């Protein structure tokens, strides 16, 4: 990974943690989230009353805390999570945005949405079943999405008599698998989401465990993914030219800073054209500021009248990404229809959407043993594989390992706008030594 560049005038990171839950069906993800919200006093009275009423109608004596996140009618009827449920809560020590993601295999692709911006993933395992295929799939997606921190929550310990050997065996198996993925050491916590053991309060049934509760770990884990410390990137969303009597010559480039910080007087390069200029001014909420940082929405003014339009990327001249028409990436296929070689697609990267064609699909990842299945010919829903895509015009892409914001993209069906795949540019654990050929420009018609 390239060393990040610290720039003057950058604010300290906020005490906000984004995290996602993942795991197989019925591992207790929604119950864990509900217990976390309930025991941390983050549930409003009317919300709790609604859950209690819904639980009584289902013949349950105690409130089903999973209903705090399973909001869709189909979810409540089936007792499973279908869509990603976002919840916001806070403790005196930290603010949280959590994404409760589905566990069923057909909704694995939804986890990509929930974990794409997460700084921590809680992967649940049923203590009775141990590590299963979905556990491995979610661990692989966590590694693919470069989530910095992982918690292994071994749930339903009450159903195995709170036995330490069961917890230890599951932890060893998961640790061995995650190490192959390149995941940093996971924090393993034995819990019972239904009974509340080690979720917010320490468990009296597991005196053999001396680590933190889930909430204690969430409150104290260092938030390492600070956008303000990343390579500075500014995708242009809109060009502002009022041409009024008050502002006859005003030309500003509006958008949200994707990463890093920008300051007045800094030399910048506009990509993909490569034209250079200097920041003359930064406007934020009607005021002029000397410095702005991610994720602020600002208008940047340059000293020169260079050709800048929507989809262009402004970056510091001494830290600009390379531009390319040959994109090599790992993708998670999310559409029901397959992705095939030769298929024409749209690629959406930051604010730019361009035509492209799938040049090759060199391999598909087999999650059981992390081997590469060479030349699969296509990717179907929930597949993870390597692709080579040729774009009609150059893109300013970072490696995903360097920037999650400007190293990611979407592949879209140009016929109806359906999202086909979520892509991460550059190398990853999935790019094993399988003889993937390098880019070749021969045979392209754009």
Number of helices: 7
Largest sheet: 8 strands, antiparallel
Radius of gyration: 24 Å
Which consecutive residue ranges, at least 5 long each, have pLDDT under 50?
1-14, 71-82, 430-446
Q: Classify the secondary structure makeup into a structural class.
A: alpha+beta
Kindly report the average pLDDT value.
83
Description:
The protein has helices at 29-39, 45-57, 73-78, 108-115, 133-144, 164-181, 214-220; strands spanning 16-23, 85-90, 95-100, 120-126, 149-155, 187-190, 234-235, 238-240, 252-256, 261-263, 267-271, 275-284, 287-289, 291-293, 297-302, 313-316, 323-333, 339-340, 344-349, 352-366, 371-374, 378-379, 384-396, 408-412, 419-425. The protein has 446 residues and is an alpha+beta fold. The strands form five sheets. Strands 7, 8, 9, 11, 12, 13, 15 and 16 form an eight-stranded antiparallel beta sheet that branches. A six-stranded mixed beta sheet has the order 2-3-1-4-5-6, sandwiched between helices. β24 (408-412) and β25 form a beta hairpin. α5 packs across α6. It is globular. The protein starts with 15 loop residues before the first strand and ends in a 21-residue tail after the last strand.
């Amino acid at each position: 990974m390239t060393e990040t560049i610290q720039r003057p005038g950058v604010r300290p990171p906020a005490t906000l943690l984004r995290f996602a839950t993942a795991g197989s069906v019925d591992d207790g993800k929604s119950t864990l989230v509900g217990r976390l919200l309930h025991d941390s006093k983050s549930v409003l009275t009317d919300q709790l009353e609604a859950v209690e009423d819904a639980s009584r109608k289902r013949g349950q004596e105690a409130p089903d805390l999973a209903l705090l996140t399973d909001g869709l009618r189909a979810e409540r009827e089936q007792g499973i999570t279908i869509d990603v449920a976002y919840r916001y809560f806070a403790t005196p020590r930290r603010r949280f945005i959590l994404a409760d993601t589905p566990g069923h295999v057909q909704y694995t692709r939804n986890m990509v949405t929930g974990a794409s911006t997460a700084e921590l993933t809680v992967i649940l395992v049923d203590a009775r079943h141990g590590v299963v295929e979905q556990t491995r799939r979610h661990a692989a997606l966590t590694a693919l999405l470069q989530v910095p921190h992982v918690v292994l929550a071994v749930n339903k310990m009450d159903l195995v008599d709170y036995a330490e050997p069961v917890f230890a065996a599951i932890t060893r198996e998961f640790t061995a698998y995650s190490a192959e993925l390149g995941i940093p050491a996971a924090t393993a916590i034995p819990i019972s989401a239904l009974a509340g053991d080690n979720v917010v309060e320490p468990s009296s049934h597991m005196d053999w465990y001396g680590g933190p509760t889930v909430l204690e770990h969430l409150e104290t884990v260092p938030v390492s993914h600070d956008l303000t410390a990343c390579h500075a990137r500014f995708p242009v969303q809109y060009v502002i030219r009022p041409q009024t009597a008050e502002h006859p010559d005003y030309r500003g480039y509006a958008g949200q800073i994707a990463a890093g910080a920008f300051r007045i007087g800094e030399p910048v390069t506009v990509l993909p054209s490569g034209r250079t200029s200097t920041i003359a001014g930064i406007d934020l909420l009607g005021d002029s500021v000397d410095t702005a940082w991610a994720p602020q929405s600002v208008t940047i003014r340059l000293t020169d009248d260079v050709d800048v339009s929507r989809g262009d990327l402004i970056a510091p001249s001494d830290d600009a990404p390379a531009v390319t028409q040959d994109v090599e990436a790992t993708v998670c296929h999310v559409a029901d229809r397959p992705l095939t070689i030769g298929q024409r697609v749209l690629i959406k990267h930051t604010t730019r959407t361009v035509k492209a064609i799938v040049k090759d699909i060199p391999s598909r990842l087999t999650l059981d043993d992390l081997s590469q299945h060479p030349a699969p010919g296509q990717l179907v829903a929930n597949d993870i594989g390597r692709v080579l895509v040729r774009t009609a015009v150059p893109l300013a892409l970072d490696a995903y390992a360097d920037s999650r914001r400007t190293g990611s993209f979407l592949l879209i069906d140009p016929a109806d706008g359906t999202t086909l795949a979520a892509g991460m540019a550059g190398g990853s654990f999935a790019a094993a030594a399988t003889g993937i050929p390098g880019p070749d420009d021969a045979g392209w018609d754009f």
